[in-house]
Fold this protein.
Amino acid sequence: MKITIMDLIVFVPVEVPDLITGSQNEHPELRSEVNELLYEWISDLGLEAVEVRGALRDRSKQVLAKISR
């Protein structure tokens, strides 16, 4: 099955080291599990995706670079 409504998925994975730390991250193991599930779903559904990392400015540049191709 392929979703055709979306042109592009922007996937922001949990980074290593995790940028959300301390009290902001109450369930790190759950975050990791959700991260893995989302990655698998994107792959299994054959969706066009861009995986972005880094600071917000870097992520924005990565998305813009992908859509300008």
In short: Residues 28-45 form the longest helix (18 residues). Residues 9-67 form one domain.
